[in-house]
Amino acid sequence: MMRIVVLLFLGVLATGFVVTAILASTSGGWVWWILVALTGLLVLLGVRDLLQKKHAILRNFPIVGHARYLFEFIRPEIQQYFIERNTDGKPFDRDTRSLVYARAKGADSHKAFGTERDVNAIGHEYLLQSVAPVAPPTSQFRVKVGSSQCTQPYEISLMNVSSMSFGALSANAVLAMNKGAEMGEFVHETGEGGLTKYHLEYGADLFWEIGSGYFGCRTPEGRFNPETFAAKAKHKNVKGITIKLSQGAKPGLGGVLPAAKVTAEIAEAREVPMGEDCISPASHAEFSTPRELMHFVARLRELSGGKPVGIKFCVGSRTDVMAICKGMLETGIVVDFITVDGAEGGTGAAPLEYEDHVGAPLTEGLMLVHNTLVGAGLRDEIRLAAAGKIASGSDIIKRLIQGADFTFSARSMMMATGCIQAQQCHTNHCPVGVATQNKRLMRALDVEDKGHRVYNYHRLTVTESAQIMASMGLTSPTQLNTRMLRRRVNLQSTRSYASLFHWLRPGELLDDAPGSWKEDWDEADADHFGEHAPLHFEEPLGVGIEPALVREPQDAVSAPRIEPRDSAKVRPVHSDVTRPEGRPGAEN
Fold first, then answer.
1. Which pLDDT score is estimated for 28?
2. Which of 114, 193, 471, 504 has the fewest CB atoms within 10 Å of its CB?
């Protein structure tokens, strides 16, 4: 009925306009003919809606049904600008984005009238300040990256630009980040899309990421090319090498850049042919076991002239993490650093199922890797980095307490470059020119201005992290421990990370693995990835599963108090028990 009424109404309206236009032909009738044309177009649109079979709404509600698609199209903007509260937006809320934008501009990032967050909500976390704060440092902290097997160690900032490839980002975005990193003396990680001229333009310190496609150092068949790698890795701006095993947005999934999107510049940077799909496999061809991975690490370290070589992954199986540690113990080869990518990370696009349901969040993954390294007696040799949704000074400190030595950030650096969280990264239609190869869109991104903004954002955020530590009474990140971060576990009480989680002692996995770790540690094998051991019993899924790392919060009223395990108390992340001098490498 609705469709007949709409078309009849438009028909009558068009007829009326025609009659009026004829009668007024001697005095401005052309205006009425315009209305006739517009009405006629609406009638044709209505007929088209009735005849098409793809959209049921348009077939039942011709013309007016298009309003639904219009509102759906502008829904994200309506949601972001008119409906969301300052603390509601996802992935980053308005308060966080405003903080990044203000610091990038060098403007005041303070906020008046108190927090809008529910500090009594279960899961809320906070840092403990001291009644005796100290003066903040006059220079930024640096962390030494490089094991005893590394001959060219590097001192890295507490916050750095995380992996984002040219191709995913525009040339102007890469240039702006590179300029900011050079000005602020922090690392610009390349992403797996190759070491490009844009990464080298301003002379920033680089960590070159090598993914499963070996872009920038590959043979025509897609295998690793040691000669090309050695020539590029010895460049003075390349300070470290990262082997990417997986990433937070889509762990365990490869990628394909369609041939239509492979521009001449991308083909040159990635050393792939034009007119063909650019394929990044799900796994590496150069190794398939932890033992082989360690030999590949040693090979890259030798080819690069002794520069730090690390691995990056989103944590999945706990057995895999332990197998990597066993690979280091059995080969005697250690990585110089490990970057843990959280499942909540991801600057590019990925299947929704992967974004929402695959991989460990950064908190769990970071603490697992730290704990395993400590238990295997490897933590002193290896620096640990956290990557995933790190935007503020408090984010940095939280990750340091959870086990990291330094951090990487991607999306906040994009926002400092101009990103407005339009979430159009995969469409090539980024409205601000950050994540697109459309030259018309990217020309709006001024490299000089945005480079200064990246520098400002980094400087002010790292300075704020030092100020917070000073308010906690600390003069160095090495003094942070797990008692300084607390989480609300119910409406009546909060608990510190020291008592919430089971922290292993140095070498504990080697001496006598605790019960909740023993089965996975025994199964872990330097010659296998994955959980390959047969089950000793049949059990329905979901029954009797004991959390391996997390101790569930006990009821504050009925549960007995958890006492420290020994005279050393509950071990903090960087305990004086294992390092009397504190965490090595972090210096003013």
1. 58
2. 114
The structure tokens listed for 181 are: 């990193």
What pLDDT is stored for residue 21 in this prediction?
A: 64
- pLDDT at residue number 37: 76
Q: Can you name the residues that pair with 338 across neighbouring β-strands?
A: 311, 384
What's the CA gap between 1 and 60, in Å, rounded? 9
Ranges of the chain whose pLDDT falls below 50 = 542-588
User: For residue 257, what pLDDT is reported?
Assistant: 74
- Name residue, tokens 């690979």: 327
Residue partners of 469: CB distance under 8 A and separation at least 6 = 136, 397, 475, 476, 477, 479, 480
Tokens 């999306």, residue? 411
Query: Which helix or strand (DSSP H or E) is residue 78 part of?
Result: helix 75-78
Please state, in angstroms and rounded to a whole number, the distance separating the CA atoms of residues 384 and 156: 12
CB of 288 closer than 8 Å to CB of 320: no
Q: List the domains of the chain with CATH numbers.
A: 1-79 (no CATH), 125-499 (3.20.20.70)
What is this structure's pTM?
Answer: 0.82
Residue with tokens 């006492």: 563
User: Of how many residues is the chain composed?
Assistant: 588
Cβ pair 419, 432 in contact under 8 A: yes
Q: Is 69 left (phi over 0), alpha (psi -120 to 50) or beta?
A: alpha
Distance CA 571, CA 498 (A): 7
Burial class (CB in 10 A: 0-12, 13-18, 19+), 511: exposed
DSSP string, 202-253: S---EEEEE-TT-TTSB-TTS-B-HHHHHHHHTSTTEEEEEEES--SSSTT-
Cβ atoms of 212 and 180 within 8 Å: the answer is: no
Q: What is the DSSP letter of 376?
A: T
CB contact at 8 A, 243 and 311: yes
Sign, Cα dihedral of 488, 88, 365, 482: negative
Cβ atoms of 378 and 324 within 8 Å: the answer is no
Residue pair 471/128 in contact by the 8 Å Cβ criterion: no
